[in-house]
């Protein structure tokens, strides 16, 4: 399947062609010239606007499992591969449940920032598998540069760009089934 998408980072919004067959989700910015449905060149200024935020990264885990509801959907991940940095998942997040604003279970209650004591989800702006106040949150809000409310606010993955206040423009977590063929002998 292929489809047209509207790019929100561009003002005004621009429709682009997305390739959904080759691993899915690719924004096509060059496919000859002319017809946006088939042959087109998105243009250098638009490609610059899409990519100026600087870089992409990925973290892939050989295993991803959640515990039961009674275990607060405890996170367990396998071996790390990628360029985003491990986000301290294996070391600090494995075994922690999912914290929300009304259920703070990160092992740091409350987190202390100077003279302020807060639930991790309050300043990180979203539920996550926090551990002792968190080093990553892909459920936070996006903040323009300079508009962060704390060191951990926004959409962040500390091992990628460090703990300084920043917000990634987007994140995506995906899972897919790994099918195993079972061969039985008669």
TrEMBL record:
Keyword rRNA-binding: no
GO cellular component: extracellular space
Gene3D superfamilies, alphabetized: Gamma Fibrinogen, chain A, domain 1
Domain Fibrinogen C-terminal: 33-179
Gene Ontology biological process: negative regulation of T cell activation; regulation of immune response
Entry-linked PROSITE patterns: FIBRINOGEN_C_1, FIBRINOGEN_C_2
Pfam families: Fibrinogen_C
Keywords noted in UniProt: Disulfide bond
SMART domains cross-referenced by the UniProt entry: FBG
InterPro entries: Fibrinogen-like_C (IPR036056), Fibrinogen_a/b/g_C_1 (IPR014716), Fibrinogen_a/b/g_C_dom (IPR002181), Fibrinogen_C-term_domain (IPR050373), Fibrinogen_CS (IPR020837)
The protein's name in its UniProt record: Fibrinogen C-terminal domain-containing protein
Organism listed in the record: Oncorhynchus tshawytscha (Chinook salmon)
